[in-house]
Structures are given as C-alpha cells and as structure tokens.
Design a protein that fits this description.
Blueprint (H helix, E strand, L loop, with lengths): L3 H13 L3 H10 L1 H5 L2 H6 L6 E2 L14 H18 L10 H23 L3 H4 L2 H7 L6 H11 L11 H4 L2 H19 L4 H23 L6 E6 L5 E7 L1 H8 L7 E5 L8 E4 L12 E4 L2 H13 L4 E5 L2 H4 L8 E2 L6 H5 L6 H6 L7 E11 L2 E8 L11 E5 H7 E7 L5
Parallel strand pairs: 4-6, 8-11
Antiparallel strand pairs: 1-9, 2-3, 4-12, 5-6, 7-9, 7-12, 9-10, 10-11
C-alpha cells in the first residue's frame, strides 16, 4: 500500500543509491547527454567494404515525409542507371507524391464513413481524424501512390514552405474534413453520400492545389545522358514518365519484416491506416539474417534499400550529433537503472514501432557477417555525419523493423 511510511522507505533507498555526479549531469544536461556511452563512439568506425556512390542528401524539415524522401532516394539510382544520367542531374518531386497521399487519405476516410455506418458518438472522434489526416506513411504507401499516379520531376511540382511546415494546414484540413463528415452523416442514402463525397474530394483537390501546388497532367522532360546524348520526352503523363524511366514494375518490390512472434516465410496483413480505400497491406515475414543477406545482394547490385526503424527511443533523434545508431549508445541501465526491452519482448507488447524511414547504402562485412551499415538520412548535411548514420549491427537486430527489397534478391 502506498502511504507516507512507504515513501520514507523510498526516500532512504534513494539516499543509499545517491551518486551526485550522475544526478547533477541528468538535471543539468538532460537524460540523453547524461546517458551517452562514449565507448560506443570510440569503438565505431566509419568504413564500409560495400558502399554505393553518394547521392543528394535531402532535408525534410518538419514535414514528417521521411517515408517519401527515403523512397525517392531508393528509386533514383535505378532511374539513373537506366537513363545513364548523373544523380545531380535528376530530382523527383516529393510534393507530388505527398499531394496524392493527402487526397487518397481523405477519400479513404469518407468511404469508411459511407460504407461502415460509423456512429458519431461511439466511433467518429478526434483520434479517427488523426488516423487519416496526417503526413505519415510507409514503403507500401509510397509504392501504391506511385503505382496509381506515377512520378514527376521536381521542377514540375517543387516543394514550398507549406510542404516543409504542414502543421497549420493539417489543423485546417482536419476541420474541413470534420465539416464534411457531419454533413455526410445527415444524408439518408449511400447514393447521396457518394455524390456528396465527390464534391468534397473536388474541394480537397482545389484546397491542396492552393497550398501545395497543382499536379501536372502532362509535361516535357529533357535530359543529357553521360554519353552526351540529348533526350526528350514530350507531352508525357506522370504514369508514362514512370514507365519510361523506372526499369521495374513496382509490384516486384516486397514489403518485408522480421517478427519472431509469427511464422517465417509467410505473408501477413500489416495493420495501418487505409491510405487507398480497400487496399490492404501485407508483409512477408523472414528471419532477420535472411533479410540481411537480401539487403547485401541488393547493395552489391548497386542499389539502396528502403527501411523503417524504431528511431526515437534509443538514438536521440536530431540530438544524435555523433551520427551513430547503436542499441547501447545510451547507457540507461547504469545511469537510470532502466532496462530497455529487447526486440522479442517489444513485439509481445506491440511496442517496437516504426517512426522513421531511411535508406541503407553500404555495409561492412567481416568474416562473412555484417558488422555495421551505412545509412542515408533526410535531416540535411548539417546533422549526423554529413547526412549519414553509421548503424551498428546490434541496432539493426533490435530496431530495424521493415524493408523494401526487390523479390529477385530474396528468392
């Protein structure tokens, strides 16, 4: 029972474990700096025996679009190789993918309202809106938008201040969708609701266009390849552009995870929000070493790998100036007497959660085993190690969660 006598016991225990140096560091510098493990920094090397050529380092700002930035960084080497064009001469529009992601999410929410007869008080609430009206996504989200709408060069739909700082738009867009939902719920038939939904989507398209820019229907693209040849693609649609420049069908890239609580070598549903209505997401569950082997094969072929990780819990996010990802980077055990659960235990709690996407662009292999990985981030060159992380293999084991890999490197 918790009472004052028990508190007195706690007080005495605290005095017996007092370490003023550690406590002062925690209170003056904060938890992350106080827990920083210098041994990890001193023992981590920044060398790789398989390493892709460096490409453009993006800065996502406050957009929360890491999943799209990572997907563009993953796609570009495939396109550059096919077109025989230098990375610096090609840039793809993140804003274009982001635009249709927002439009599709609103459509999916409207459809859910129409066809599931959600009750206003019981099921339609702020949390439901937050599930759909946000900027987050995963590998499959980017893939399905690109499959449906294609891609365009950055010049056709460039980023603007609202893409980098969408918080004001997010709030206003949510209010707009709330108004739509309330009016939709007052309609009697599905046909009336469907008709009203089309009106709402047109309004959303216009609103998104005002804020982020209007997506092109067709455009011209000219480039010079490394052989000096001038090539022009005239009056081309975004889907035609994708087909012309990307050498693979998007469906050949598989969404992969390693969940020890489920059977390996089987497909399972991935439960997240419905970005495109009635499009279900699935992942293939593979042993972690099989995933590593597949990634190494894709790197050896000259191509990066999209991956998502549980980023904030142990790396310190922007504060990680060392640019190192390691499960022991912060010594919470000796500093705060807190033990971070390992991956299997985290999966039992369903708490090993993806919150950041990057691309793997290199690996150090010793004695036929990966020791560390080179990771390209999207926080700009001024963060981490000039835009890159060194990810030690123990972090991969514990916090790397999902991957996008071509099926030929898995089979």
């Amino acid at each position: 029972m918790l009472n004052f006598d028990k508190i007195r016991t706690f007080h005495n225990h605290y005095k017996n474990t007092l370490d003023n140096e550690i406590i002062n560091k925690i209170r003056e510098k904060g938890i992350y700096p106080a827990c920083f493990n210098l041994d990890v920094i001193n023992n981590t090397k920044n060398t790789f025996n398989i390493e892709l050529p460096e490409t453009k380092i993006y800065n996502q700002g406050d957009s929360y679009l890491c999943w799209i930035y990572a997907f563009i960084s993953f796609m570009k080497p495939f396109i550059c190789k096919k077109l025989k064009i230098a990375d610096k001469n090609l840039d793809l529009s993140i804003n274009y993918i982001h635009f249709f992601d927002r439009l599709e999410k609103s459509n999916s929410l409207y459809e859910k309202i129409i066809h599931n007869s959600l009750k206003l008080k019981d099921e339609i609430n702020e949390s439901l809106l937050d599930t759909y009206i946000h900027t987050c996504g995963s590998f499959d989200n980017a893939k399905e938008i690109i499959q449906k709408y294609g891609i365009v060069p950055e010049t056709e739909m460039p980023m603007n201040i609202n893409t980098f700082e969408p918080s004001v738009f997010n709030k206003l867009f949510k209010e707009k969708v709330k108004t739509d939902i309330l009016e939709m719920l007052n309609l009697d038939t599905i046909k009336e609701k469907e008709h009203f939904k089309e009106k709402c989507l047109e309004e959303n398209y216009v609103l998104l266009s005002k804020v982020f820019g209007q997506p092109p229907i067709n455009f011209n693209f000219k480039y010079q390849n490394i052989d000096g040849n001038e090539i022009a693609l005239n009056d081309i649609t975004p889907k035609e552009f994708l087909k012309s420049v990307f050498p693979y069908d998007m469906s050949q890239f598989i969404f992969v995870m390693s969940d020890e609580t489920k059977a390996f070598y089987k497909k399972f549903p991935y439960y997240d929000f419905e970005q495109i209505y009635n499009h279900k997401h699935y992942f293939y569950n593979l042993p972690i070493n099989k995933i590593k082997d597949s990634i190494i094969k894709q790197l050896k072929a000259g191509f990066p790998v999209w991956f998502g990780c549980d980023f904030k819990a142990v790396c310190g996010s922007y504060t990680n100036k060392a640019g190192i990802l390691d499960s022991n980077l912060f010594d919470f055990k000796n500093t705060l007497d807190i033990q971070i659960l390992q991956k299997l235990e985290q999966q039992k709690f369903n708490s090993c959660n993806y919150d950041h996407a990057m691309v793997i662009v290199g690996v150090q292999i010793e004695n036929d085993k990966p020791i560390r990985w080179k990771v390209q981030n999207s926080f700009g060159k001024e963060h981490n190690q000039k835009g890159y992380f060194v990810m030690n293999d123990n972090y991969f084991d514990e916090y790397a969660i999902m991957f996008g890999i071509h099926n030929c490197f898995i089979l």
